[in-house]
Structures are given as structure tokens and as C-alpha cells.
Design goal:
- The complex is a heterotrimer of chains A (380), B (259) and C (325).
- Helices cover 51% and strands 14% of the residues of chain A.
- In chain A, helix 5 packs antiparallel against helix 6 and helix 7 runs antiparallel to helix 10.
- Chain A folds into three domains: 114 residues, Orthogonal Bundle (Butyryl-Coa Dehydrogenase, subunit A, domain 1); 108 residues, Beta Barrel (Butyryl-CoA Dehydrogenase, subunit A, domain 2); 146 residues, Butyryl-CoA Dehydrogenase, subunit A, domain 3, CATH 1.20.140.
- Chain B is α/β, with parallel strands linked by helices and 259 residues long.
- Chain B has a single domain, classed as Rossmann fold (3-Layer(aba) Sandwich).
- Chain B is 31% helix and 29% strand.
- Chain B starts with a strand and ends with a helix.
- Chain C has eight helices and 18 strands.
- In chain C, helix 3 packs across helix 4 and helix 5 packs parallel to helix 8.
- The chains are: A alpha+beta (380), B alpha/beta (259), C alpha/beta (325).
- At the B-C interface, helix 3, helix 4, strand 9, strand 10 and strand 11 of B face helix 4, strand 7, strand 9, strand 10 and strand 13 of C.
- Strand 11 of chain B pairs antiparallel with strand 13 of chain C.
Chain lengths: 380, 259, 325
């Protein structure tokens, strides 16, 4: 592993940075306020190839590696948490499993438009009674001979409001728990498929959070992704890849808040001098910078292992766990450095804090990540 | 139509600049394609889309400079020349122009574009010097380019306003970043840029001796760097609008005596 | 040894930058025992030659030709080269303008000289000059040296103090011929720019509009302030990009470098791209409602307040002051 980026990665970083500075920085605050899904921004991101970064070119992707993907996620999240999660879902939770488990036909039909960003994907796993515990999945698909009939509902679905294609996990063998879950590719225009917006989120508020409702939705037989009743494995390996993206997102958010705090500390004058002259502030800044760096190295290692074809389950969880807790801490310190102003929405740091907080929750809570790491350490 | 763009890789001047013991600290800096050169690339791609053209990049620089060339190729330029030679480390405007003169000798082109200055030196001489060496007409600080009657119509930001100047071909034009908003290279473009032709040239390949370059370099030399003297902030005046204006008028008339 | 200064003029009036550079040439000349010459290129500029003597020029060289009425670089290069070849100076100083920035590279090459632009300090070393100049968006400075036989330097606006003129001083006036052949470019026209009545780089007082002016109405307020102050209006890049003002009003790294006695920034945040162009102002006033705006770090008087409330009162106060004086 080389700690210096290669030329492809450096150029990718420049493009992602230019995009973020030019298009996200000016509107991130407004997106948070209006909670409007940034349709036009996502179209621009798609033009640049940000919707299928690590998907091979033959399936409409950019053909880059997972390390590049983390670089992009960090640069995007540095300015806008909402946009970064929209990209994360399409890249790792939808394109990822389609590439890994899809048939050649499914890849051409579903993956290519998603990786090109002509279509947007969402990932339907979570239910009111099933989050980290997939076995509680109530959504079911019944084999009707020449098609599946899908019924149930999913909640907290990022991109739900604007997506075209959903990956939906449903019970196909009731009573078998995790061993009875299958994954389906569902066209969101199908009759019986409805989407209800969900409001009241603390952060990443422009990410189109929705509830998906299935009422006798007909799903063609060929839309089963992977093997019947093997959906649990798809869900888990998909989240491994997703966690790398969330770790990178957390790093980007932490960095955005850190940079603002650093700048502010040089400009804010108290007791006749810039507050950056005070050790109390310096100590916070040094810890913030150090932790961001540490999280980045952990995350890039997980991505590199993925690129090398190694088992990266433990590293992905460790990276996501460390980066997300780091981001909560760093963004919180950024508020502290800003003092009273940091607690108001006049400054961005409170938004970074709200956006970062979810990284400890989605795609497996911190507690789940600890279990994953422990299971690996203990060889279970 | 054949367009050449002379470019440079420069430190990202939006970052914090660090200077220690009179030296510029390059560690930790990002290096990027000079923004004014990026505007040249953008403008020539627009001309290419409109009239058809071959867009070629030329860069003097070390190994890392390839990244700047690749950025231009990723934006859509067709091919690139990378002039790399140990004798060319840290050369100034006049020496760079000398090297480029040798590069253009015997080459066929319709016009040469280059940034109005490099963001690291902000010198703004190399383009015009190169023109004079090549005995070409030139214009600096272009904010718009188009073609008409086999001439390049240049809009230039001058002292009195935007000047419209018709340039015969071949000629050289230096570009301002006010000319356009350079496109961001797509990931597809970045991957495709790996496959575009990039030829590496040494001084010997150009038929130029290190002494000839040195002769130009010796005309002036860079001794050291320093940070600009900080301007001290004065008083912040707070209060309602009446108080602010009354205090300011008092200060401007009695203290600063500028009104 | 001779030091030659090229004066700059606009519509028959010498620019103040010419006097700054001439004053610096006088100081430099006393350090190295040189004689100060000035040169003036243009059409119908002869009458101004005498003024250059007031600032220390012993001889004034004139190229007064209709070809120099509108600016394109070829005739200016020809004329400047003719004067330099006749005078044979060791050091040539220029003020900075878009025209001079345009023709100096060819002149440097044509005369096989050493060229350095944007100098803000000049020192005689004994066998040449040592200069300082800003670079990297004025975030750093470099020190350079040249002991070449012909050194051409352009000077950054506002960097050098102007000496008191001596109205009694007279200079020898020498007219030079220049042959203008082979005009390589064809000048078509100057597109009208909505330039203010007072030119930005010449103004003693500049009112600058930042993003905080919001719209045409905000801009009108600042125009009115500029009017009552007899100031020029300038702006940040953001305001140019929004289409409210033309690019000729842009102050900063990619716009004009100004050096007024009084700069009043209204709704200007003070991004480095802008401050790179106005940091040389003698007195900086900032009006901004964001008390944390970086411009307050360089402002002599920082007014924390809403420009829409402050500026109308300021206009009245200035009117009152003018009435009483």
C-alpha cells in the first residue's frame, strides 16, 4: 500500500474538489434548510462519473478503484453531507451488489444506467422492526409462478423520493429468519409501489428520505438478485463496501468542520488576541487534525484491501466505527471552538455536527461495528 | 486548425503558503494546472467543438508535471509534450521562453495559447517573450476568442475597457481566467487521458544546450522568499448606524485626515 | 549611468503612478549616482513633458505620433525600443497598466534585457538591482537580483511614495523618430464599458462593492456614495460575476491593483483574491454586518453594521461636510 495517491487518484481528487467547491459549498446550507433533493447537482455529479466510481467502464462506471471512491466521498462530504449520502447509496449500496451478484443481463439492464447516473438507486433493507436485525423483515415476496408478488414497507430509505430503481430485501421463506431473505431489483414505476416522504431528520436533510410501500407489486422472476434465500449475505457484504463510503463521508464532514474551526480560531479575537494563541484551543485543534488523519489511513487501508480482493470485513467496520465516532467528536469540538456562534445556524459547524451524527447510526450502528470487529478478532 | 497551449504546474495558491528561512515550503502543497492555462484549454476546446482543431499541450517541468498535462488531456486536449531536463529546474520566464522557442522551431501551428501569468511567479512575461523570439504577433490578457475571416478575434481587457483586436495566424495569445469557466474533468476523461499520446523531450531533443538556457536564466535570479508584512487591523466600531457614521466621520477628518 | 522612466498617461493627463515611479527613480539615482531621464509615448502628449521635470527628470524623451493614439503593442514596442536604444540606460522603470504589461515582454526580448514585473521595492546593489515583488496571489514576496546590462522593471502601484514636485524645474526635451512598419495586429474598437467617471487605478478614494450589495439597488447606493465623495467605484469578483458591474471595475488578483488614499469596502468580506488588489490602500474602511469578516483584520476602521443602514447616513454626513468646507 502506498500512502501517496497515484495520478488517477490525484486527478479524481481535484475533480471532486472542484465540483464540491463550485457547486456544493454555495448551496449546502440552503439544502439543509429546504430539505429539497438536489436533482440538478446529482445530474452534474453524474456527468462527472461520480455515480459509479468503482464500477467497470463496460457497465457505465468510471472504472476506478475503491480508494478513489473514498477520496471522492471525502471531498463531497467536506461541503455537503446530503449530497455525499446520495452518492454513497447509489455507488456502494446499489451499484455495488448489482456488480457483485447481478447476472450479465441484469448488469446491462439495471447497473449500466445507474452507474452512468441516468437513473438513481435506493436500498430497501430497513423496516420498522428490522434494522440491524434482518431476520425481523416483514416485507414478503410470494412466488406466483411467473412472477413474484411483493408486499410490505421499508423506512428511512435515502434517495427514496427520487430513485428509479430499488433493491428490496424481502422474506421469501417465512420462518427461516436470515436464511429466508432474498434481494429483488424493483422498478419504482411498478404499479402498487408508492413512496412517502419522511421528515424531521436531524441531519443530511436533503437526501430524499422516504418510506417505500409495496402493495401487490409484481416483480418479474428475472429480477431476483443473486440466489433465492441468500439475500442476507448480499445485504451484509454490501454493507461492508458501504461502510468504507460512510467512513469517508464522516472524514469529509469532520474535515469541513475542522477547517472552519481552524480558520475561525485565527480570526476570532478574545482577550486581545486570536483564540488560536490559547493552548486550550491549540490542543483541540491538534487532536482534531490527528484524529482525522488516523481515520483516513484506516479507511484507505480498508479500501485498498477491497481493491486487492482481500477480506476487508473487519477493516471496513473498524474504519466506519472509528471515523464516525471521530466525526461526532471533531464536529462537536468545532462547535466548542466557535463558542456561542457555533451553536447558531449562522455558522456551518452545527450542520456538520448534525450531518456527522448519523454516521454512527446508519449502515450498522457503532455497536454493530464493534460486534463485527470482535467476531473477527475472536475468530467467530 | 492546430492549437498549442503552453502550460505550467503550480502550487495551489489557495492553500496556506509557508516560508521558512527564505525558502518556499513545498511539502504538503497540492500542485495543480495553472488556472490561467486551464482557461486556455477550455477556450481551445470550445473552438475545437465549433471549428474543429487539434489541441496540443506543452509543459516544462519535472515528473510530477505529468499530472498537470493529464488534467488538460482529461479536459479534452488531444496530446501532450512534456519537456523534462535536470537543467530546467526552477527556471524563470526568460529561460522558459527560450526552451519553448526551441520546441516550436519547425513546428506547424495556427496559434499558441498560454496563461497571462503563472500563479506561482505572477510574472506575466514568458508568453510575450516567446512571441518576440518566434517573431509572432501577440496579445495579452484575452477575455474572449473567436474566429472570423481566417483571423482570430481577440477580446482583451485593456485599460479603458474591452479592446477588440484582430490577429493574423499564426500568433500567440495569453489568456485571463475571466475568459471562461474551465470544465471539470470527468472521471471518464481522467481514465481516457492515460491513453492519449504524451511525448517526453529533453533539452538535447530540442537541440538546445544547457548553456543557452543558462544565459537567459542569468539575466535575473531569485534570491529568497518572505511573507508580506502583515497589515495591522485597527479599531472595530460597533453600535447603531448613527454612532457608526458619526465615529467614522470624526476619525476620517481628525485622525486619518483623509477627508 | 542613466535611469529611464516611462511615464504613463491617459487622455492627455499623466497618471499618478508615473510620479511614483519617477520619484523612486530619483531615489535610486542618488544611490548609484545616475542621471534620471523620462520618456513619454503617445499622440499629442508633448505638453505634458514639462511636468515630468517637476518630479526630477533631467531629460524628457518624447515619441509623439498618431500611431500611438490607440493602444496596440507593436508600435509601442517600436517606440519604446527606439528611445531606449538612443538613451542607453542601465535601468528602465515602468508604472503598471494593462498596456505596459502587454508590451513589456516583447520589449525585454527585443533589447535582450532582463525583465522583472510588479516590483514593490528596488535597491541598488553596486552592480545591479535587488528588488522585492509579491507573488502567489500576494501571499508571499520574493527577492530577486539582476546585474544584467539592461534591466527593465515594472513597478507595483502604490508601492513608492511620490516626492514633492518642484514647479521651477525644467528638463531638456528630446523628440525621437520611430518608424512604424508591419503593424501585426489590427485594432478594431474598444467595447464601451460602464466605467465610472473617475478611473479606478487613479482615484484617491475608492468605494468598493462586495457581495453584500445584493442587487442593483444596493449598487446604486454605493454609486451615490462614490459621487458625493468624488470617488471611483470598484468591486469584488463576485459582483462582476453577478453581472452588476463590468469587469473593468474588478479589484484584486485578476482585476486592478489599486492604491487610493481612502478605500471604503461595503459588504466586502475580504477574500484574499480581493485584498491582493487593495492591501496597499493608505486608509481602509470596512462596512460589513458580519463582525467576523476577514476584511476587519486589515481595516483601519471597521464598521460592524448593515450597509443599507450605514451608507445612506454616510452619504448625508459627507454632503454636510462638503457643504461646510
Amino acid at each position: 500500500m502506498n500512502v501517496e495517491f497515484n495520478q488517477d487518484q490525484k486527478l479524481m481528487q481535484q475533480s471532486a474538489r472542484e465540483f464540491a467547491e463550485k457547486f456544493l459549498k454555495p448551496v449546502a446550507k440552503k439544502l439543509d434548510e429546504t430539505q429539497e433533493f438536489p436533482v440538478e447537482l446529482i445530474r452534474k455529479a453524474a456527468e462527472l462519473g461520480f455515480m459509479g466510481v468503482a464500477i467497470p467502464e463496460e457497465y457505465g462506471g468510471a472504472g476506478m478503484d475503491s480508494v478513489s471512491y473514498t477520496i471522492m466521498m471525502e471531498e463531497i462530504a467536506r461541503y455537503c453531507g446530503s449530497t455525499s449520502v446520495i452518492l454513497s447509496v447509489n455507488n456502494s449500496l446499489v451499484c455495488g451488489p448489482l456488480l457483485k451478484y447481478g447476472t450479465e443481463e441484469q448488469k446491462h439492464k439495471w447497473l449500466t444506467p445507474l452507474a452512468k447516473g441516468e437513473k438513481l438507486g435506493c436500498y430497501g433493507l430497513t423496516e420498522p422492526n428490522a434494522g440491524s436485525d434482518c431476520a425481523g423483515t416483514k416485507t414478503n415476496a410470494v412466488d406466483k409462478g411467473d412472477h413474484w408478488l411483493l408486499n410490505g414497507a421499508k423506512i428511512f430509505i435515502t434517495n427514496g423520493s427520487n430513485a428509479d430503481t430499488a433493491l428490496v430485501f424481502a422474506n421469501t421463506d417465512p420462518g427461516k429468519g436470515n436464511k429466508g431473505i432474498s434481494c429483488f431489483i424493483v422498478d419504482m414505476k411498478s404499479p402498487g409501489f408508492s413512496v412517502k416522504p419522511m421528515h424531521g431528520k436531524m441531519g443530511i436533510r436533503a437526501s430524499g428520505l422516504s418510506e417505500l410501500v409495496f402493495e401487490d407489486v409484481v416483480v418479474p422472476k428475472e429480477n431476483l438478485l443473486g440466489e433465492l434465500n441468500k439475500g442476507f449475505k448480499i445485504a451484509m457484504t454490501t454493507l461492508d463496501g458501504g461502510r468504507i463510503g460512510i467512513a469517508a463521508q464522516a472524514i469529509g464532514l469532520a474535515r469541513g468542520a475542522f477547517e472552519e474551526a481552524l480558520q475561525y480560531s485565527k480570526e476570532r479575537v478574545q482577550f486581545g488576541q486570536a483564540i488560536s494563541n490559547f493552548q486550550a484551543i491549540q490542543f483541540m485543534l491538534s487532536d482534531m487534525g490527528m484524529k482525522i488523519d488516523a481515520a483516513r489511513i484506516l479507511t484507505q487501508k480498508a479500501a485498498w484491501m477491497k481493491d486487492m480482493g482481500q477480506n476487508y470485513n473487519q477493516q471496513a467496520s473498524a474504519a466506519k466505527l472509528f471515523a464516525s465516532e471521530m466525526a461526532t467528536w471533531v464536529t462537536n469540538r468545532a462547535i466548542q471552538i466557535h463558542g456561542g456562534y457555533g451553536y447558531t445556524n449562522e455558522y456551518n459547524v452545527e450542520r456538520y455536527f448534525r450531518d456527522a451524527r448519523v454516521c454512527e447510526i446508519y449502515e450498522g450502528t457503532s455497536e454493530i461495528q464493534r460486534l463485527v470487529v470482535a467476531a473477527n478478532l475472536l475468530g467467530r | 486548425m492546430k492549437i498549442f497551449i503552453c502550460c505550467k504546474q503550480v502550487p495551489d495558491v489557495a492553500m496556506t503558503i509557508q516560508i521558512k528561512d527564505g525558502k518556499f515550503i513545498s511539502e504538503g502543497m497540492n500542485y495543480v494546472l495553472n488556472a490561467y492555462d486551464a482557461s486556455c484549454v477550455e477556450e481551445s476546446l470550445v473552438l475545437k467543438e465549433k471549428y474543429g482543431a487539434e489541441v496540443t499541450l506543452v509543459l516544462i517541468g519535472d515528473e510530477a508535471g505529468k499530472e498537470a498535462l493529464r488534467k488538460g488531456l482529461a479536459m479534452g486536449a488531444d496530446n501532450a509534450f512534456h519537456i523534462m531536463d535536470p537543467a530546467l529546474n526552477q527556471i524563470g520566464s526568460q529561460a522558459a521562453a527560450k526552451v519553448l522557442q526551441a520546441f516550436f522551431k519547425g513546428r506547424d501551428f495556427d496559434f499558441i495559447l498560454t496563461g497571462k501569468q503563472a500563479q506561482d511567479s505572477d510574472m506575466g512575461l514568458a508568453g510575450g517573450i516567446l512571441s518576440e523570439m518566434l517573431n509572432l504577433p501577440y496579445v495579452t490578457n484575452a477575455v474572449g476568442l473567436d474566429m472570423a475571416d481566417n483571423k482570430v478575434v481577440v477580446r482583451r481587457q485593456g485599460d479603458e475597457g474591452v479592446e477588440v483586436i484582430h490577429m493574423p495566424m499564426p500568433s500567440l495569445i495569453t489568456c485571463s481566467n475571466d475568459m471562461n469557466d474551465p470544465r471539470i474533468p470527468s472521471l471518464k476523461g481522467i481514465m481516457a487521458s492515460k491513453k492519449k499520446p504524451m511525448e517526453q523531450l529533453s533539452l538535447a531533443d530540442l537541440g538546445l544546450s544547457a548553456d543557452e538556457v543558462l544565459r537567459e536564466s542569468k539575466k535575473s535570479s531569485l534570491k529568497s522568499f518572505s511573507l508580506p508584512p502583515a497589515r495591522k487591523s485597527g479599531a472595530k466600531i460597533e453600535g447603531d448606524a448613527q454612532t457608526l457614521v458619526a465615529t467614522l466621520m470624526e476619525k476620517l477628518t481628525k485622525e486619518a485626515k483623509v477627508l | 549611468m542613466k535611469i529611464l522612466v516611462f511615464a504613463d498617461q491617459k487622455k492627455g493627463k499623466l497618471k499618478k503612478s508615473s510620479f511614483e515611479v519617477l520619484s523612486e527613480a530619483v531615489r535610486l539615482a542618488s544611490a548609484c549616482g545616475a542621471e534620471v531621464h523620462a520618456a513619454l509615448l503617445g499622440s499629442g502628449v508633448k505638453e505634458q513633458a514639462g511636468v515630468l521635470a517637476h518630479y526630477g527628470a533631467k531629460t524628457v524623451h518624447i515619441v509623439d505620433r498618431p500611431e500611438l493614439a490607440t493602444y496596440i503593442n507593436t508600435p509601442f514596442v517600436t517606440a519604446a525600443a527606439a528611445v531606449i536604444e538612443a538613451v542607453k540606460p542601465r535601468v528602465v522603470l515602468f508604472p503598471t497598466s494593462e498596456g505596459i504589461k502587454d508590451y513589456i515582454p516583447a520589449l525585454v526580448q527585443k533589447l535582450d534585457g532582463a525583465g522583472i514585473t510588479d516590483c514593490c521595492k528596488i535597491k541598488w546593489t553596486g552592480d545591479g538591482v535587488e528588488i522585492e515583488r509579491p507573488l502567489m496571489a500576494a501571499k508571499a514576496r520574493s527577492t530577486m537580483e539582476s546585474s544584467h546590462s539592461l534591466i527593465l522593471l515594472t513597478c507595483r502601484a502604490g508601492s513608492f511614495d511620490t516626492n514633492e514636485p518642484n514647479p521651477a524645474a525644467v528638463a531638456e526635451i528630446v523628440e525621437h523618430a520611430a518608424t512604424f512598419t508591419d503593424l501585426k495586429q489590427i485594432f478594431k474598437e474598444v467595447l464601451a464599458a460602464n466605467t465610472g467617471k473617475i478611473s479606478l487605478d487613479e482615484a484617491d478614494i475608492v468605494v468598493a462593492a462586495g457581495r453584500g450589495v445584493r442587487d442593483a439597488e444596493g449598487l446604486k447606493l454605493l454609486e451615490e456614495l462614490a459621487d458625493v465623495l468624488g470617488a471611483a467605484l470598484g468591486s469584488t469578483r463576485a459582483v462582476v460575476e453577478s453581472g452588476l458591474v463590468s469587469a473593468t471595475l474588478q479589484i484584486g488578483q485578476t482585476g486592478k491593483v489599486i492604491n487610493p488614499t481612502l478605500y471604503i469596502g461595503c459588504g466586502v468580506s475580504g477574500a484574499v483574491q480581493h485584498t491582493a488588489g487593495m492591501g496597499n490602500s493608505k486608509v481602509i474602511v470596512a462596512i460589513n454586518k458580519d463582525s467576523e469578516a476577514p476584511i476587519f483584520n486589515i481595516a483601519d476602521y471597521g464598521l460592524v453594521g448593515d450597509l443599507f443602514k450605514v451608507v445612506p447616513l454616510l452619504i448625508e454626513a459627507v454632503k454636510e461636510l462638503k457643504k461646510n468646507s
